[in-house]
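Morning!

This is the sequence you dropped in the shared folder:
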Amino acid sequence: MAFSGKFDGAKVALFVGEALVVMRRDARMDVTWPGTLDWPGGGRDPGESAADTVIRETREEIGLRLRPEDLVQETRTGRLGVAVVMYAARLPAGRANEIRLGDEGQAWGLMMPEDYVRHSDAVPSLVLYARDVLGVDVGDDATVRGHLVRQWIRELVRRAAPGALGLEGLAAQVAALLGQETEEMQVTVDAVLTDMVVAGELAADAKGVLPGPHFLDVVTGGVP
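The structure's back. Tokens below.
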């Protein structure tokens, strides 16, 4: 059954052969999840269905033409007030020859799903979709948890007005987004935040958390 509720955008876990198509997002403050490894998809145009959106975005971003019947495992997700319809699609390995990067993104590549979910630049919400819907083993080690925490902090800071993101409650907010509201998560958030401040990626004081001078310097230009 096609999704018929309200939504803001749609994305697809696109397998070409056994590997996922990933794209390195542009490194700009006006782009959501800057510099991360993303999947095809984007915002809805007026009048589009969720399937229309993800088919159009995939064509524009990487040149591949999907059919409605290619889209399976339709799931609605929502975080930070944004409703996204997620799909999965599987194409033969030979269709990788059709991929051409469009006007958005720095690069594209193919990654095995188990490598994607453990990568430090993976988008947390996509990692959770891969775990919960696609059945990819994410694991629960400290390294993976630290990657997810770091990405959520970056995006919360990017979205916040100057001085609007306070230190108090930050750990609880990140933990809730990841669905892991534990004492261990509090420790992880505190440690990651300290590392980001020391590296100049963030600036934090009693007034709140702000982008530091090296906020976007951590982003590389390639895709593994």
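Headline: Helices lie at 50-62, 113-116, 124-132, 142-159, 170-178, 183-198.

More detail when I'm at my desk.
O.
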